[in-house]
Amino acid sequence: MSLTRRVSTSLPQVIGFANRSFKSLRFPGQSLDSSSSPVLTHGIHVFQCPDAVGIVAKLSDCIASKGGNILGADVFVPENKRVFYSRSQFIFDPVKWPREQMDEDFNNLSKMFNAMRSVVRVPDQDPKYKIAVLASKQDHCLVDLLHGWQDGRLPVDITCVISNHDRGSNTHVIRFLERHGIPYHYLRTTKENKREGDILELVPNTDFLVLARYMQILSGNFLRSYGKDVINIHHGLLPSFKGGNPSRQIVLAGF
Fold this sequence. Notes:
Layout: E1 5-6, E2 41-50, H1 55-64, E3 69-76, E4 83-92, H2 99-112, E5 117-121, E6 129-135, H3 140-150, E7 156-163, H4 172-179, E8 184-186, H5 196-202, E9 208-212, H6 220-226, E10 229-233, H7 246-252
InterPro entries: ACT-like_dom_sf, ACT_dom, Formyl_transf_N, Formyl_transf_N_sf, PurU, PurU_ACT
Domain ACT: 44-127
Keywords: Hydrolase, One-carbon metabolism
């Protein structure tokens, strides 16, 4: 596996989920029916530190020295500042690399490079993130997220779905949520009242929010009050093309 060092003009999205199950993976050369074959577990490491020579080498060595194998890695260094970002996915034998030792090893790496952020996740072992989902009228992003959660591709606990669109009781989304015991909250919004205070009251114990094509722009006050990450599943991510129909806005702007 090769690591590609990329320079980006924007900050990367460094939060991600495991989308494959590695419970049945075994080391090359070992029989699948061997009772002694180690079962490999999937890990994710996110890193942010001042840019320096040798970070990728030390990161790779940290994993490989414990018998782990990197499956994929994204590395970014923004042009406007000397900050190194990376997100690595790897597999390892939890017998050879216990969770407590893994935390210690990545903590030592963090100290070595004066990291501002170093987060390691083992989805099969760690508590699931608690999230709330915000949606509007269009269902496709919300439905895809819910089905990914149902299939086990998104290892999270969905605490509730909040929407500014009133869905009927006999709709696919509502029936799905009721079957799985996920609360649905309809909060009617207006230009004068975005119901941000009501949203905050519903999400105090979440780890982050997911906007599944939520067609409202959250205010700075809301983001400061919430104080945690917000992920936007929407193709209008460019700040100059907010709201609905960002593709049309881009074309009309001559891009």
